[in-house]
């Protein structure tokens, strides 16, 4: 999994790339937590741009839960953007779309 | 990825690396070798130069030195040494008549001749009167010899003495500063040139008439080998030539000797048109060569008539001793034993030819610096080279140094020691390679140790996984109990743990005469922690549901709170719970983040049952879950799976997905037992995976409503 950060007005955007599974979920969580801290320092929202993420296992969902708690602790609103069809299905099955705002474009999430 | 990357210091990073350590060891080896060579002294270099002289002995351009040897045959013929000075005078005269350019005596005459008339008269006290007067009226042998010396170009020897040497006290009677020196030095000798306080000289009668005087000191090196011959030295503060130099001067009729000074020290001596390089101490490195037989004549033959006339014409004749007990025997680079007079004769030839070996003053430092430079280059270059260059280059360089040294010796008489730089650079290379070898061995050992640890951990993990699997499978309800929960319900479950063991589980229990509760869960994570969390989740779920909650949604919300309370590792669990009324076919379902159930009609048609549901348990605190009702017709079935089925992957990376689930369940018609649903799905999934390793547990719970 690769990770990059972009910043737009009012939002810090984390962009994972590849797969989040048994091998990579810890890195995924660590990068999210770092980015949440950066967003908190900048007074931004945190948007997780899923456009280039191919797959997320239940480990990734668990990481999202933990990251959400971290974001809540720092008062950082957290949103998910641009999941592919597979991820959208996973989010729907797990009902994570009931926990996170999930949008089809980053602009809306911003 | 953004963010600053830490950048380590490359130098310290290299120092910490195995190669950096090996290079440091190589450098230390080079320095140790340098120190060792310094401690060992010049012996190794000198032995190499000795070898050069044995392989290529000197062939002087002007071999004009001739030795008249007072050998055992001469002693047998003439009488024991010392001979009467009269005899020596006759010998001198014969040599002069033979045309000798100069005649040098490589012996000293420090005492009056014992055959002088006064000495003989003293031997015979009974001799008196006219006989004694006649004897005493005869001229002394010394006077005769002095007269011959005075008429001919004769050079006498003189031995410089330092405190503690033999004859030092004997020489005290003579003021060294007043000893006659015929050679005129054009400049004082600079500091560093050898110096003697006193000298053992000849009796004044002889000294006063000689054409020249030269020092015959020939101190060997520490190993007893004579390699250098004294050219000039101060005696009592007076510049004095060496014996061979003085003989060459007198023989050529040259008056002056020119000391040549460079960098404050003596670098050479000029004699007429020739220049002889010397060391700062005033000694010349002689290039030794053989003494031709035709250049040696026994003394007794000179005294006999019949020797070829002109044998000594133009020759620089040296008279020396070669009889046992009298000879000055020395070791040279090319001979274990030879006569001192031969060394002086060779020196005369070398002086006349301007032929001497040169060892530059800073040669040792230069060789050491070259060695260190090559060591540094080796340390930098060797790790970058592959075989055969890693062997060819150092060996080639060493051969080139040896060849260069040999060429310098043959072409210019220059003495350059290649062993020193080769040894220093070689030590660096050997140190480097040895350290790299040790490092490689240690790395192999570390890898082997790591492999052992990995195997141990794998074995341990396998043990843990076995334990987790035991926990997981041990918690599943027995199949026969499930099928007998209610006659109107056919219920069966299947769980295929993955190799790494996921956290799937299922359960079913009878609440009362009419109702049966069933559930399927999936805990995130693997191994023992997941298995234990699964056990906890299942136990709490059974506790919350076994009495038939009035509100299934509220029960799930309560269950969420209960499980979250004991969730130290931030796990979560998806769970689909159903309660079926076996008399009506009504089912209440509550979905916490799990796959939706699949409704399979009696004819095998299957479709997903969409449920609103909520997030997995433990994901969100106090989430308000809801129960959602459906109704089964007699013959209808309900199948609940985990993501081990829906997310099973083919070798191409495709997911099994719901369309394939529905297709696999088409064969599960009303006449088939509940267990067939799991079997059909398992077979379809394994076929889809095409031998690939399952990444997650595979769980199917199937329920058929037979009708009330």
Automatic annotation (TrEMBL), chain A:
A GO molecular function term, named singly, is: anti-sigma factor antagonist activity
PROSITE patterns named in the record: STAS (PS50801)
- In this chain the STAS domain maps to 1-110
User: Which top-rank group of organisms is this from?
Assistant: Bacteria
- Name the Gene3D superfamilies for this protein: STAS domain
UniProt-recorded name of the protein = Anti-sigma B factor antagonist/stage II sporulation protein AA (Anti-sigma F factor antagonist)
Originating species: Edaphosphingomonas laterariae
TrEMBL record, chain B:
Under which name does UniProt file this protein? Serine phosphatase RsbU, regulator of sigma subunit
Output the Gene Ontology terms for molecular function: phosphatase activity
Which residue windows are transmembrane per the record? 362-382, 389-409, 421-438
Which PANTHER family does this chain map to?
STAGE II SPORULATION PROTEIN E, STAGE II SPORULATION PROTEIN E-RELATED
Keyword terms of this UniProt record: Hydrolase, Membrane, Transmembrane, Transmembrane helix
Please indicate which superkingdom the organism of origin belongs to.
Bacteria
NAD among keywords: no
Which InterPro entries does the entry link to? Bact_Sigma-Reg, CHASE2, PPM-type-like_dom_sf, PPM-type_phosphatase-like_dom
